[in-house]
# Entry
Amino acid sequence: MRTPIEYVDASAEVRVVYDDIMATRKTDWINNYWKVLAHHPPTLRRMWATSKEVMGPGALDALTKELVYMAVSVTNGCAYCIASHGAAARKKGLTPEQHAELVAIIGLANETNRHAAALELQIDEQFL
Amino acid sequence: MRTPIEYVDASAEVRVVYDDIMATRKTDWINNYWKVLAHHPPTLRRMWATSKEVMGPGALDALTKELVYMAVSVTNGCAYCIASHGAAARKKGLTPEQHAELVAIIGLANETNRHAAALELQIDEQFL
Amino acid sequence: MRTPIEYVDASAEVRVVYDDIMATRKTDWINNYWKVLAHHPPTLRRMWATSKEVMGPGALDALTKELVYMAVSVTNGCAYCIASHGAAARKKGLTPEQHAELVAIIGLANETNRHAAALELQIDEQFL
Amino acid sequence: MRTPIEYVDASAEVRVVYDDIMATRKTDWINNYWKVLAHHPPTLRRMWATSKEVMGPGALDALTKELVYMAVSVTNGCAYCIASHGAAARKKGLTPEQHAELVAIIGLANETNRHAAALELQIDEQFL
Amino acid sequence: MRTPIEYVDASAEVRVVYDDIMATRKTDWINNYWKVLAHHPPTLRRMWATSKEVMGPGALDALTKELVYMAVSVTNGCAYCIASHGAAARKKGLTPEQHAELVAIIGLANETNRHAAALELQIDEQFL
Amino acid sequence: MRTPIEYVDASAEVRVVYDDIMATRKTDWINNYWKVLAHHPPTLRRMWATSKEVMGPGALDALTKELVYMAVSVTNGCAYCIASHGAAARKKGLTPEQHAELVAIIGLANETNRHAAALELQIDEQFL
# Structure
């Protein structure tokens, strides 16, 4: 069930999504996430539409969006997502210095999140 | 063990940290995280030094750093951290539109992270 | 400490559990989880007894139980558990269409769980 | 930013979604998740469309879908989601006995997921 | 379904477990975990037997066992478990200084766990 | 960005930290965590200082500290951390029997943490 579906083997319905992914990203290949999702065309279509809407142009710039994505993926320990969105972030201009800061913040937030839980902190009224 | 230590009750050692927090943040109050951490001065001192280094000026701007922090805190479900860093982000200029996009990206990344796990995805060689 | 203990090398105490696993599952082999757990016979015995009680016949049917197990394992990103319980679910009749829906629900729930945290939702009184 | 938007205060765009939620669910009220999401109409619309597609009629029955949702929500410790989907599951027929079994399976899977990590298990070739 | 079942309202079957909990712990009351679990006597009985076996005398001392329990509970953000096992740890001799170190280690491990994920570390051959 | 930096290729600034790691641990090699962190010297320096302070001599003994570290790493499913801190724990005297108990407690705590969430437990007043 996990074999990626290559373009040549894809149905017309799936190719429409693949074509839009490549056109939107200005690339000539599709990564495994989409090629495995393609076993269930409704999910492929829905996830691509969602991805375009959420990760597309908006009030946050493209690189910032990737950094948020990375922060989630690292916190969840998703190796695939770290690799794919790390590549996306570099393509959008992430520098080694910015990457180092990103990693440091993710680490710190995971640390203080647990301090907050362990110390059973009450939310300050100034934050309510 | 969880009672916040107020400034008037704090030791000289703790007050030095409190003073630096207020001066750095240009505020006249301290939130509960630091006031509870103050029961163990070495941890208070270390965490504040770490926080200043990691969250201070660098290659990523101040608001972006807060968004990364929020992404981690939401993924971990840390209510205290969401409240405190949500306030920090708004203070640094987060707009309602940006907040809505942030929430949408965090949600999407948590969704696709699980798709990647469930589908047992292989990392594409292009990402290695 | 992590070498699986094969049947031929197992003590009588461990073989009793292995025999029951194979008889209960109507198979002639044991998967690594049990063979590594076998280094500590009390844990092997306890976990097998628990597994039989919790995953055995009850008010929920066998396939539904596996789907719940999968939902947890995917959320935790446990590759071993996803592989082993995925196999168990297919053996109990999971179809590709059902699998696709399962993956979609797991993804959606992980997404909305974070929306709920990020938006600091109050529980509606109708749910209390 | 977190105040729920009531029907009387909602824009026409938001009311369309609210109306569809109530019609689909055959209820006369909307829970806080949607009323807070309504601050960002594109997200409200997208999440409701996704929810209808993923949780609607399919290869898995309605109650099973809720159980999977619960398994994720409990694993993530999302109190709001546990309350809201617990109510949904009861409405769809979940019995106390089934609920008790659900809770036991979720607990067991979380336990064995960590055993698998701690014991650094190799995936059996039979599962590949 | 969540109302705690008090001793006076409990069946004989449940009272046997309650009596053993109080005798084992040398206390005259039962905490909510067991009183809510009591709605499903087989789970109550199984979890108490498991708890006695796992948390009882062994190769690790009683306080160390509680610290491990706390580390898990804090990492998962389980407020109930942090409160109940924090009390148990104090009863078994946890000092404020030890508690502060425990919190610091839990925080640090959560931080470095994410560094390891973000940096896509290869396991050193010396650790294999 | 993830290539480990070997001693011979390291800057003087990085070698100072490497030397201190080897001297403190009484070993003649450095594991990948530090060698990859070395791409960003400020983070390398800060994390090593933190590690020495948190994991060094204190109110909890060295082995107990490693067990807490393991409990977090297993709960987060961090394979690298489980391998490296498992080795550290064995070096500090962890016996196979103690390891088996550790694994059992981690599993049990993850199980009961989810029971607590699923059953929406109220914290007993005795724990407040």
